[in-house]
């Protein structure tokens, strides 16, 4: 019911029960293959297991039986074995404990979800990069504490979005490559039942599944989960930041951007309204993440060789965290790819204070001749005069004698020209885009 | 797949999509009834709406359309109207905004879930009360920082569980009664389209739905959600506490309790194992709650008349919080109702330190004649002697001259008798049970 | 360094180390008095303890010694005893364990902090009530998802703030009265060393300290802490909501309110800026609370008779939570008490859409004659015409034949008059203020 | 008062107000130097600023004035300027905004705190490595869900601790090197007042401070803070895990380890008690972290060019997070460096089930001849016989005919020999230590 809004995009299915179950089956099959490659099983047995697991299993009945076992792995193993005769049945799950299967499956599920999240994050970052490029020189009020401060360019704002998304992506890719590792430890993490072949089987299993190797079983060493959670938490922030900006820029009184997907966010009762649904839903997704990250981090304190609840406490929050970040990424991509920019409105808003946004620039220009403090004092005096008289800042500046003795009219005009004011911003945009291009080229 | 373990009990269905959708329909119907009772609609129109909503709606298609609207209410209203002709169609949703329907439905869903949670919590508290009564005098080591400290009774431990569960229940009941309130404000919380009848319609709607009245619409005044979240967070703690105790008492090396549900928690590969699955799953449920509470509390900071993401961010965490607390309550009830107590093992463990657990009692007995400090010093000297020599504390006490001059042998025997040591604990159990009985009698 | 911004107001000192230490001393003294009143000590001994504790203790040295003991109580008890001879020295701390003293002190510290928080929250709610009264009829755009939706009154917005603050206050007062309870259990919560007098001493101690009685010791039954945390979390939300509204209303492009404390939030380099420092700092305080609440709730799962880290984990977060909510309350009070309202700007903003904000009202007026759907369609058609032609909504409405056949010009004028539009809002304000007055009268 | 327990170690001072203020001064001085190196200031002015800032500033008075400005930077700049004449006074803070100074200072403070944390974490990991090496072959019960499962070695447990600590360290070092970046953006992140020299000055400033460079100002792009928080959260988990194990292993009924710091954790009233204070305090520290991480992650959603409260909301949680992880690291180091191991007790506990812990190994040995299922069934039959008759598992195995026909007595003895059982564990320890050594060699 809520998934259209809160679980948009392909990650939803990638972390659904069916995907978990499929991943668990894959791990069992890959384990059999690994045992065979390590010389601990025969090819026929592996083939039998592959055939037996080709058809899907019944998630609901396995879920029901999971209650008594405390995990769905035991009923799954029984279900697989029920489709097999000996000796293949005995091979299933050999050397593994339930947590080996579930943790490895969690890593598979996470890797696939991360791939999908990355696709949407890359697209969102690309859209932000396009906006940065197109609007490197578009003046907009820089706002601090939600007050207009000094001019910037809309391109620099978009470059900031891009930069946050790229940082989150970089981290998620590191995690996907190095920290999503296979789990294989057996009952107490000693790989005892695999004898001397334990290390080899673990390595083969990692390779079969395309997961990173783990020097030690990590049943109760959960830094991998913690880093994954942290990376997703940072991604949520990187998603939420542009979403918040869009919501704020789309305010009726600001009106500098709006979401451009036809038919979305309209209200029949209020025809003037155009809700920024994409940004709002992205923001909602981002807000849900930090609490889930905290739960996953707190769950890392696990007793002895396998946990007594802390491990179980990871399952839903991990799936939910992937889901919500996936939803946020999908919404943000959609939002940024269809964002409509109103440059005229940006300029108009920039002039709200009658040019006072350029006061800092004027004070800077006075600095060589007056020093900072008296320069600022002079500008403040002029600004007060302008506000008191309801006159444009430029006009008062030009008629002021103290200013006039130090700055030429054309210098003043230059200082108050928004196009000029965004030079610094534009240079930063260029650098950021160049860095991105050179990173992509590697 | 995981719901057998992590979403046990009836709350799971009570917070599922179907239940939300049903609740939303109920709110729309109740609204039509309220409008009619307030004279703003005719009985035939209401009857038409009742007939049109008798058949369920398609949650999946409504969910899909929800994406564009940002909420599932708009597509639901359209779906209802599609089953109606005028003038009934125009009556549907009259005076309401999407959030009115969804918030009121959330309150209905919450109240029903709370009822179910309360049933399990009451049963768990009753089971704890039974244990408290049955074991008011059963000596067990009191453990602080997981070290044996002084004796207590198992009954007092169980009374503590009961007390925590009862406190959580009391609070949840207050919330259910006073804080689950109807929402009716219209587009911006002014009830404008209802004219002067707004207050009356809101009151009637509350009564129709059996929800508390709200003096003001609370679209962005989320203290109700926050209190609900807080109450559930406290309940999670009250569930987790006995669950943790059971897990610890069931440890192989302690062995004072075990879960008594046949077939559960057994391991084919490790026949000696008997995993306390109920307590473990209850603990897992409890661990998931605090992060969700934080998300709901953080979402309370909502802008203006209706939020821009913070409201959406409540939906899944609220359902998830109800679900996880419901699961924990169901598991804990199951665990406590089938808990097997090993009194002999409790006594045996109590004697691990050769009687040193009674040192505090001996020091207390010496206090009148020696003062606290020299009494304690004397006891420490004797205790050191006992430990160094590997002799029972009682034996060394009885042979010690300094002690002998102050305490009679029968006094020493009394001080070291576990049955005697738990007198204080038993008295507390009695008081707690009496209070509970008198509270129930009201 | 940051306390001026982040720990404003008197709560900072009320939860500082010195206040905790003083509270711990008070508990030890009150315990001695209670023992005496229960006949377990002589008045001279109590008097000696009172004299010995009149001078403050050295927090730093006690803190240092606390490391080895794991709590500051043991070194404090030693420090008290060092100032006493026997038998008074032996009376100190009699019957208590460290946690008894620290928990009771935490309750004292919390109660005092809650009193201070309540003072600021009441003042903030009063300020909101004054704004509600003064502006019950002041039209302002109702904003949903940060888009202008339909008109409301500024008074109703302020009444919403008041309502949230009052709800938080009510809950905090319940907690202060009923849930801040004395702790007295002895080493393992059995009150063993007090013999049959345990219950009486606990009651007397509660009365001495002005704390609620506790039927059972609650060393590891932490629902009280959880409720306190939850209540403070709700208060943080109630503080953050108006603060966010003020920040949004104070935006340069909105400009409907500003903070009126002279000299605050000014920027020398940007003379046009006036940062809403109070609201910003209140918002910052509110944002810090939910994570702390989660920590306190998670810490409720404590093992056996006394915890192994979970209890220690409460100390700083509890103090920090009181401090941050106290800071938020102080800032919000300051903000609301000095808030400047710009009614003209509110009206001006309301007209941004050329009257389209009244579209819903027009559609409602058409409902009797056209039904909802065709009424809305007609209004949408007119609205589109107005927007396309850049003409005021009123003008197009008045010249539209379909509309004209159904609504008289004066009816249209009435529907589009902001003063009229806020009637519903004003009525809600009146009700909310009346309810408040009658609650206060009780 | 609580810092001895909750803020142990040198990080406390490194994140105290004085350290923040010092870091802010350093940033201002480094900025002046960078301006000079970029040709925007003269060496004399820089020298004047260096002299003027040599003496410390008054943290309390700056903190007081911070309230009006919303940050302590403005009063600090004024205080510096008050010690200078022109033109040096005008140079101070040139090109910077308050947030530039505070963020850069936060990075300095964090880097220093991370260095201190790393020192303690390395020492703790070394201590764990020493335990792993010394006890690679020491049999201990592997415990899952707190139930004895199969044997492992204490060395493998310690290697798991080491592995978690090393993983956390690796991540923190990456963050320290690459993510603690300089902040320099000016009023709205455009570096406008520095003109074309902006990029160069930012680079020079990074180098002066030994911080990473930042391609863009990151006033509202908070991925750096998020990654830092996440890394610290993972470290907290890595600290909490061994601490929890120590607390559990030190339980009276387990007694396999105890903390060896003389005088710590003793109780005068309970001479038999030896509280594992170090582990308990480390655990407490770990429990406090996740909520703070969540706050920092949630604060990443910041509006426009500079935040309206979300930035302020980072300050205390960041300092508190560094402090608590520092405290945990210091305590854990202390705990592990002095941990006393009781090998005899480990063996004794391992025999609690009369050898049943070796059932899995026996079933594995039967696998080739019987297949998994009948092998397990046979072992279960024997195990049941052993438990029912209260006889050792070995004895029943040796006398069982079905077993006897398949396994020789010496094979059975080998399977039941704990030393043999830990071979797999020992091999894993060796690999983990080798990996660590080779990583250190790089």
Describe this structure in words.
Four copies of one chain form a homotetramer. With about 450 residues, chain A is mainly alpha-helical. Helices cover about 65% and strands about 5% of the residues of chain A. The first copy, chain A, has helices spanning about 5, 10-15, 15-35, 45-50, 60-70, 75-80, 90, 100-135, 155-180, 200-210, 225-250, 275-300, 310-335, 345-350, 360-390, 395-400, 400-405, 410-415, 420, 425-440, and strands at about 140-145, 145-155, 255-260, 340. In chain A, the strands form two sheets. Chain A has a two-stranded antiparallel sheet with strand order 1-2. Chain A has a two-stranded antiparallel ribbon with strand order 3-4. In chain A, β1 and β2 form a beta hairpin. In chain A, α3 packs across α8, α5 (about 60-70) packs across α6 and α12 runs antiparallel to α13 (about 310-335). The longest helix of chain A has about 35 residues, at about 100-135. Chain A is elongated. The two termini of chain A are about 45 Å apart. The mean pLDDT of chain A is about 95. Chains in contact: A-B, A-C, A-D, B-C, B-D, C-D. The interface of B and D includes residues 253 and 384 of B.
Write the layout of secondary structure elements.
Four copies of one chain form a homotetramer.
Chain A: H1 3-6, H2 11-14, H3 17-37, H4 43-52, H5 59-69, H6 73-82, H7 88-91, H8 98-134, E1 139-144, E2 147-153, H9 154-179, H10 198-209, H11 223-249, E3 257-259, H12 277-298, H13 312-337, E4 339-341, H14 343-350, H15 359-389, H16 393-399, H17 401-404, H18 409-415, H19 418-421, H20 423-441
Antiparallel strand pairs in A: 1-2, 3-4
Helix pairs in contact in A: 3-4, 3-8, 3-10, 5-6, 8-9, 8-13, 9-11, 9-20, 11-12, 11-13, 12-13, 15-16
């Amino acid at each position: 019911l809520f998934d259209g809004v809160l679980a948009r995009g392909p990650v939803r299915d990638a972390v659904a029960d069916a995907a978990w179950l499929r991943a668990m089956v894959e791990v069992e099959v890959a384990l059999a293959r690994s045992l065979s490659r390590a010389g601990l099983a025969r090819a026929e047995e592996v083939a039998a297991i592959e055939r037996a697991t080709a058809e899907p299993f019944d998630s609901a009945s396995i879920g029901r039986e999971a209650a008594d076992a405390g995990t769905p792995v035991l009923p799954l193993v029984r279900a697989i074995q029920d489709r097999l005769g000996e000796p293949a049945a005995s091979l299933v799950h050999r050397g593994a404990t339930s947590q080996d299967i579930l943790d490895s499956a969690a890593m598979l599920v996470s890797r696939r979800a991360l791939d999908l999240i990355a696709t949407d994050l890359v697209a969102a970052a690309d859209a932000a990069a396009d906006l940065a490029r197109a609007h490197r020189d578009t003046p907009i009020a820089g706002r601090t504490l939600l007050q207009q401060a000094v001019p910037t360019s809309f391109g620099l704002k978009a470059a900031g979005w891009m930069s946050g998304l790229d940082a989150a992506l970089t981290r998620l890719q590191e995690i996907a490559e190095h920290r999503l590792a296979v789990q294989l430890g057996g009952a107490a993490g000693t790989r005892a039942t695999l004898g001397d072949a334990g290390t080899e089987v673990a390595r083969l299993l990692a390779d079969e599944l395309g997961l990173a190797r783990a020097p030690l079983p990590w049943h109760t060493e959960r830094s991998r989960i913690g880093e994954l959670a942290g990376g997703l938490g940072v991604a949520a922030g990187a998603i939420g930041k542009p979403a918040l900006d869009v919501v704020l820029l789309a305010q009726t009184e600001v009106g500098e951007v709006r979401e451009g997907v036809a038919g979305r966010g309209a209200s029949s009762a209020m025809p003037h309204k155009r809700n920024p649904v994409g940004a709002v839903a992205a923001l909602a997704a981002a807000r849900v993440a930090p609490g889930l990250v905290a739960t996953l981090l707190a769950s890392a304190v696990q007793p002895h060789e396998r946990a007594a609840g802390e491990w179980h406490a990871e399952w839903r929050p991990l799936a939910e965290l992937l889901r919500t970040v996936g939803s946020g990424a999908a919404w943000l991509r959609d939002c940024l790819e269809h964002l409509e920019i109103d440059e005229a409105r940006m300029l108009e808003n920039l002039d709200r204070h009658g040019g006072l946004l350029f006061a800092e620039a004027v004070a800077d220009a006075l600095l060589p001749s007056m020093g900072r403090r008296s320069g600022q004092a002079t500008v403040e005096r002029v600004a007060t005069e302008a506000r008191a008289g309801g006159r444009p800042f430029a006009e008062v500046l030009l008629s002021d004698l103290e200013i006039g003795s130090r700055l030429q009219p054309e210098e003043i005009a230059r200082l108050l020209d928004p196009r000029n004011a965004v030079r610094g911003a534009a240079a930063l945009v260029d650098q950021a885009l160049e860095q991105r291009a050179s990173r992509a080229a590697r």
